[in-house]
Amino acid sequence: MNHRIAAPLLLVTLALLCVSAFANAEPLQDTGTTPSHDGVNFYVSADAESNGNGTASSPFQNLTQARDGIRAARKSGELKPNQSVTVQIEPGVYRLDASFHLAAEDGGTAEAPVVYRASQPGSVRIRGSIELSPAAFSAVADDAIRSQLDETVRNKILVCDVSTEDRTAFPPLKTAFRGVPNAPWLYVNRHPKPLARWPNLDTPEQGWASFSKAIDSGLAEPDSTDTTRRKPRGGSFEFDDPRPARWNLEAGVWLQGYWTHDWYDEVIRIASYDPANKVIKLAAPHNYGIMAGTWGAAKRRFFAFNTLAELDSPGEWYLDRSAGKLYYYPESDFANAFVELATLDQPLFRIDNTKHVKFQGLALEYGHGDGIVMKRAEAIEIAGCVIANLARGGISIDGSDNTVRSCDLYNLGTGGVSLNGGDRKSLTPANNRAINNHIHHYGLFQRSYAPGIGVHGCGQIVTNNCIHDAPHNAIQYGGNEHRFERNEIYRVVMETGDSGAFYTGRDWTSQGNVLRHNYIHDLGGGDSTHVNTMGVYLDDCDSGDTIEGNVFLRAGRAIMIGGGRDNRIVNNLVIDCPIGMHLDSRGMTWKQWNSPTDKSWQLERKANEMNYQEPPWSNRYPTLAVIMDDSPREPLHNEFNRNIFVNCAKQVWNFDANVKKVLAKLQVSDNVVLNTHGAAEGIAMAPEIDGFNNVIGTDQEPIVIGFASEDETALTQIDDTRVRAAVPSFQPIPFDTIGLTKDAYRRVIP
């Protein structure tokens, strides 16, 4: 388990939990990574001559040559169908100007796989970038450029010509986009660098400017007498700060903002600025309008970027895309810096309709696309690899029986790992797996709905991952029969609102998913006022999930069910969360719950598409099969049993008036609410309701529940008879099995 947050001594996990996360961890078995005795070896070296034949003495230069060598050997008969192939890759940097592509002919079999292996794990670096020498940077001499720079820094800015023989210009940024800007992107000393921006990242507001008055939302007004307002247009807002007057709008300045909702960001170019009235007008409409029905804070946030005038903080850069000139404000010791400019906007690896291939110990990095994209893939294993410093996502999998194991994924523009496959109608599982991966610092460009792990389809497995440091979700899922077990999640949902570490929503048919024995802690603002962040969020009538045996610590509103049904909330431990549990009745009060005109809801239509009233659905989900005859708008058949709530600051449970009316139709029993020291204020107790027991300690006889040491690894045992008597059926949570573990590919826990 990854423990990087010091916890107050007061907080510890339950005495029914166990000791150190790693003390007894057993390495996983190496799953078939050794080729058979009659396998064939090919060799690759970045320093090889161009005419190598793939032998140890005359290796290939790159992976494409190795792939083609395997094809040729199979065609000639030198390589038999029952022979495994291992491509031994020597240390070095291997640069790509197009995706490394594997097709159906490049796969193996279960008994004879094709293995691409680093001879020294981590030493094979596959890059979609060009290296820039610090010596190629020089002081800015052009007076026209210098005049645009702040006089306090203009002598510190360096410039490098990044135009090439086949490209003198880079494509301009789009007028509006969500997510990844056009290539390239700059990385220095293995970290992505920010485009020149305002406010800077080190400001008190953490790099955000704000406004509170919209002039024009930009939304279409169908009944307007002004024909130009009947369709969407760029909105405008009042910004009471003279800073925009410094910017060269003709050259282009873009704003990335949460324009209406705290869960949807977008980048839009500035069209104009009126300094007299202090109004910024945007060049394209925003999907939700400008301040058009805000969820969350009344103020809206944005930052400006891609303007030379704001190149004023060490680490920032700016690219003159037409001239191919890159300007950089260097940090210390730039002469010895490692500088990469990511240019390849294709996936580094593309795998189509391929079976039984393994990638071991490789580092895929510095690209402006995805790391690995797999479609119709079967039994592909990615093990012990590093996927980092990419503008898009890490690994995208569509297929069955594929595995991402013990990989490190970080500094990603969008999400980490995506799993998709299986057949929902027949409930056939895909058995794709994400196991023991460390995923962090993602969502750097697309700030929302770019999760650490995204799961769709049927029957994916997500276990023992550590996910942290991101603006939005850790795990976002939909579909059926997925398992999420023993994952540690922290410092996510750090920038967004109305969102959760685990998130799913708006679908009755997303059934059979199990969230068990996960540790979710230190989310969002991390204090008692932060109740718009959830640990697990089943949004908009999502139904049929099991949330069992999880630990929530400082996790905002720990468990939120937005009007859904058939959810089991059992045996969870909730510590120091402002609100422990939430169930509302939005299906009963929101008109769009089943509206045929709202494509994103249409709950009954989605169910009909799955033939939900026929086997196997009617057998597997019997209450769903009869939902239209069973008060479909009510949040029925939810179960809340054997949960322990410790020192909730605001509310133990939040049930609205309609929920209270149907409580008799729910299963609520054996839940315990603890006030460990008997605080008179600041700790909520459960109001009188069947199924909740209050237990109160004192300063003289406190209830000892919490972490016994600041690193949260040593756990006390619960010997408190008051708690054991109140919930004798509470099952031990195997805390020592949660999070990253050592195995054949992960020798050290970070």
TrEMBL record:
Q: Which top-rank group of organisms is this from? A: Bacteria
Region entry Disordered, spans: 217-238
Q: Mind telling me which InterPro entries this protein's record contains?
A: Beta_helix (IPR039448), PbH1 (IPR006626), Pectin_lyas_fold (IPR012334), Pectin_lyase_fold/virulence (IPR011050)
Q: Which UniProt keywords apply?
A: Signal
Annotated coiled-coil positions are none
Task: Fetch the SMART domains from UniProt.
Answer: PbH1
The Right handed beta helix domain is annotated at 371-442, 452-585
Q: Which residues form the signal peptide?
A: 1-25
Q: What is this protein called?
A: Right handed beta helix domain-containing protein
